[in-house]
Amino acid sequence: MKSAVIGRIYTLIFFVLFLSGCEAIEGIFKAGVWTGFVIVALVIVLIIFVLRKIF
Q: Does the predicted TM-score (pTM) go above 0.85?
């Protein structure tokens, strides 16, 4: 009886820690995607600006 309850508690703790880690990684990748998007947009704007000045 006790081993079954302890096993369930360990399983619950494992899933809580595992799922919170996935959410943290998801947040990091979302921030990375937006940062990359902003950098690419700025580079494109810079290229257009330079090309307009040249021609």
A: no
